[in-house]
C-alpha cells in the first residue's frame, strides 16, 4: 500500500492531478479484473501427471540450456528458491551458471548444500556490477542456448521443457521468450500477468516488453557482445536490441514461465527504486536506432520505462509519395490535423513500413479503436474500444506505437508505390473491410502495419462516412 502511494505521488508530480487520478482509477479497475489471478494460475499450471509426462519425454536431439545468474549479497531464502526452481525443471539438460560478486561467502555456503553437478559457481574477486557479473556467468556457459534469470526470481517447472519443445519444432529458432507475472516476496500472491504479443519490433521500441523469460542461442549472444556496463539498469534492453538485430527466427511462447519477485528494492514493486534504469533504457533505444541508421528523437512518456520515438524522415520533392486519408468526419482543429498528418507521413515513409494508422475517438472522448486485431475466425475487431480517453489500456498499449493486424479506415497513410505494386487504387479503399484486406496483403509483402497513438482524431459522430482518399505527395500533405 505504501509503495502504491509513493508511486502515485511521483506520478502526480510528473504528470499533474488529472493524469494521476486517471492512473489510480485505471489501476483499481485492473486490480479488480486480476483479483482471481492466483486461483486462475493454480488451475492452469501443469498438473503433477503432466509434469511427470514431460520428464519422460524423449527428445531426439536434446539441447542444453545455460541458465545465467549474477548474484550479489542475495537474500538466502530467495537464493534457495531460485536454485530449486531451476533444479526442479522437468527438462534435465541444463546448467546453472552463477557468478557471485558478494564480498563474503554467503552465496557459496548456500550453494554448497546442493550436490548437483549442473551447478557451476564462480566467486568473483570484486563486484563488477550487474553487467560485469552477468558476463562472468556467460563465460561459464557451454549450452546451445543461454537463458537469463535474476537471482531472486523463479521459473515454473515446465519453463525449459516448453522452450525445448519450441526448438524441437523449429531448430532454427534464435531467440525465445515467454509470458511472465509477478509474485510477492513470500510467494503467497501472484499478480500482474504480462501476456505478450508475438515478436513486435515497434512495441519493443517503446519498452522492453520481452524481458523475462528469455533464451538466446549462445553463438548469437557471443556475436551480439553480451552485456555492456554503460547500460546498467537497462542492460537486458540493450542486449535484446543487439540480439534481435542479428536474429532471423524469434519465437514467443504464450505461457507464464517466469515469476518476477516483487519486493521493496525491486523495480517490480517500486519503479522509483531505480530511476537511473529508465535513462539507461532511453540510451539503449537511441543506440539501437543509431546502429540502424535511423534518425529519430527518443523521449520519455508519462509512464516510467516507456518511450516515444519520433522519426525524422528526409522527404524530397520527387519521391517518398504516400496516400493519406483523414476522415471528413474528423472534429479536430486544423493545427491538430496538421500534426496528425505529419505523424502518419513520418512513419509511413520509413522503408520497412507499408501502412500506418492513428487512434480514433468517439465524440465523448472514449476510444473507438487503437489498432485492429484479427480474431481466430478471420474477422477484425477494434482494440481498446470504449476505453476512457485518459486510460492507457493493458500495459499502456493504447498509448504505445506498435505493429497491429490492421488500422482504421478513418485515419491512415499508405505508401503510394506499394499500392501501385499491389495493383490497388486509392479509390478502392472506401470501407474498413477494404483496409483490412489491404493490410493483409501488405504484411504478406513483408512490410509492417503500424499503429501510432500520436495521430489521434475525434469523430464527430459514430456513423462511418468515407468520401474518397486523397493521393498526395508527402511533402505537401
TrEMBL record:
Its Gene Ontology molecular function terms? Answer: glycosyltransferase activity
Enzyme kind, highest EC tier: transferase
Q: Mind listing the UniProt keywords for this protein, alphabetically?
A: Glycosyltransferase, Transferase
EC number(s) given by UniProt: 2.4.-.-
Q: Which residues form the Glycosyltransferase 2-like domain?
A: 66-218
Q: Which domain of life is it from?
A: Bacteria
Q: Sorted alphabetically, which PANTHER family does this protein's record hold?
A: GLYCOSYLTRANSFERASE (PTHR43685), GLYCOSYLTRANSFERASE 2-LIKE DOMAIN-CONTAINING PROTEIN (PTHR43685:SF2)
User: What name goes with this protein?
Assistant: Glycosyltransferase
